[in-house]
Design goal:
This protein is mainly alpha-helical. The protein has one domain: Up-down Bundle (Four Helix Bundle (Hemerythrin (Met), subunit A)). It has eight helices and no strands. Bound molecules: protoporphyrin IX containing FE.
Length: about 280
């Protein structure tokens, strides 16, 4: 029985590592496309150096933090699946999903559609992990005859979970390819997409706060590792915010360029800069 448990645990951890590596590659691939689009004649992708460094730092920190949390807190107990699924779901998949969404801001046409699918797959993986992580902790509380949603972490956790469900739903509505957005008046489209981007980022931030609140809990507290995880998540949050704001500056530049070449197609007279971009994409 014990041997079987150890084998299952090893297989699960191997699976997590494989998925971690492939997801990191996936979000990087969508980044590469963005570069190819901007450098059509150039086979070698070139990111602006600061964006390249930020992206690399985010890939490394998401992998290190999520896998160390998942591995080092794992002891085959039912509870330990909660930090495992939550850290893989939020720190690895959701962070990489957010990075991939930042990368396709500048894309257009079929490459953009492909990049959006990549983003959607990453967020779907996050959602599956989060659902499993929640089911585990909920069941664990029932087994231990403990009251639900009492700690600050669990209250923030519920808010994060609600946002985690809302955000992909808004993504589904925003994705033109699925046709739902066309049921809404055209003038709402840019606002719906804007709302999805904002809700997505707030959800990710809320998740980082929720995890920070869990780290000092006696069940998971480790003398040396806890401060390192706390610092790591703070740094990751800072890096991703920087990448997002850097990219917004770039979006503005790209937008100015795109407008000059697409003005003929767009009825730009009554649209704001943001609405024009959204319509163009
Ligand atoms: C954003 C990710 C996370 C979310 C949304 C989340 C959500 C929740 C929720 C809703 C509960 C309460 C369940 C209930 O009362 O029935 C809970 C409990 C708990 N979680 Fe998390 N969790 C997350 C990440 C983590 C991580 C990474 C750890 C460990 C490092 C962790 C450790 C705990 C602990 C120790 C409890 C029991 C706390 C208590 O007594 O209320 N959680 N979590």
């Amino acid at each position: 029985m014990m041997e079987h448990l150890v084998r299952v645990r090893q297989q699960c951890l191997n699976f997590c590592v494989q998925v971690a590596i492939s997801s990191s590659k996936m979000s990087h691939v969508s980044g590469d496309h963005s570069l190819n689009i901007n450098n059509v004649d150039n086979a070698t992708p070139k990111l602006p150096p600061i964006v390249a460094k930020l992206t690399l730092a985010i890939h490394v920190s998401t992998a290190v933090i999520s896998l160390s949390l998942a591995f080092l807190l794992f002891d085959s107990s039912l509870f330990s699946w909660h930090p495992l699924f939550m850290s893989i779901g939020y720190i690895l998949f959701m962070s990489e999903g957010v990075v991939s969404s930042i990368m396709f801001r500048h894309l257009d046409g079929p490459v953009r559609v492909r990049a959006i699918w990549t983003h959607a797959v990453m967020q779907a993986r996050a959602l599956i992990c989060v659902a499993l992580g929640f089911a585990v902790i909920y069941q664990n509380k029932i087994i231990g005859h403990k009251l639900h949603f009492k700690s600050t972490h669990s209250k923030f956790g519920v808010a994060t979970l609600l946002m985690t469900v809302l955000s992909p739903l808004m993504g589904v509505v925003s994705f033109k390819r699925l046709g739902i957005i066309t049921k809404f008046p055209e003038k709402w489209h840019s606002f719906i997409k804007f709302l999805h981007r904002r809700v997505g980022l707030i959800t990710w931030l809320l998740a980082m706060i929720t995890i920070q609140l869990a780290l000092p809990h006696p069940t998971v507290k480790r003398t040396l590792l806890t401060p390192l995880w706390q610092i790591g998540i703070t740094v990751l949050t800072f890096l991703l915010m920087m990448l997002s704001s850097r990219s917004q500056i770039k979006l503005k530049d790209d937008g100015d360029r795109k407008h000059s070449s697409r003005e003929v197609d767009l009825d730009s007279s009554n649209l704001t800069h943001h609405q024009q971009l959204s319509k163009a994409l």
